Amino acid sequence: GDSVTQMEGPVTLSEEAFLTINCTYTATGYPSLFWYVQYPGEGLQLLLKATKADDKGSNKGFEATYRKETTSFHLEKGSVQVSDSAVYFCALAPSGGYQKVTFGTGTKLQVIP
Amino acid sequence: GAVVSQHPSWVICKSGTSVKIECRSLDFQATTMFWYRQFPKQSLMLMATSNEGSKATYEQGVEKDKFLINHASLTLSTLTVTSAHPEDSSFYICSARGFGRRPRNEQFFGPGTRLTVL
Q1: CB B112 to CB A103 under 8 A?
Q2: What pLDDT, in 10s, does the model give residues B25-73?
Q3: Which residue of B has its CA nearest to A95?
């Protein structure tokens, strides 16, 4: 079945540091890939997505590129802020729709001033 | 737009009682709603998928008689945890998918409901 593997946290960075959170997936066909963010005590918010190979999703300074050859969708940000502290989930949905989303275990990011 | 709300945001109940959690799509019609459960420091686990006007489809290992799901309208789905026990304590999150102003088929998540069973 489909699965998503992301790096374990927590990740602690100083403000303005470079962020990478690794994510790899296993799926048949051409799934859509997502990054969701969960701030403390809140639900999930879609951060960015990519629906086909080589697509780059971007939002709020975060980027991730859909790499079919390495089955990866790593999240990056050039300069993190304290307000980016949250849990980040990598996820995929089967090709053809968003019927069932499979989530990774989440990576907690803590940014210190 | 594409706002999903949940009520209550948190609830504490005694063991053996039932608790109802509501999930509403505020500005679009949700043809499909999903219920997830999140354990501390873990990922979301899909519990069930409900389509408006039909019975919910439960994931393997989820007790349908314990977690009753009703999707009676295009803007409301409810999850009732029957005869709750301490092991049911968790964070329950719903998501909704529909055809409105947003991109088709995208899921939008509610803020979650924290259930604590004493």
Answers
A1: no
A2: 988 888 889 999 988 777 888 999 998 888 899 999 999 999 999 988 8
A3: B105
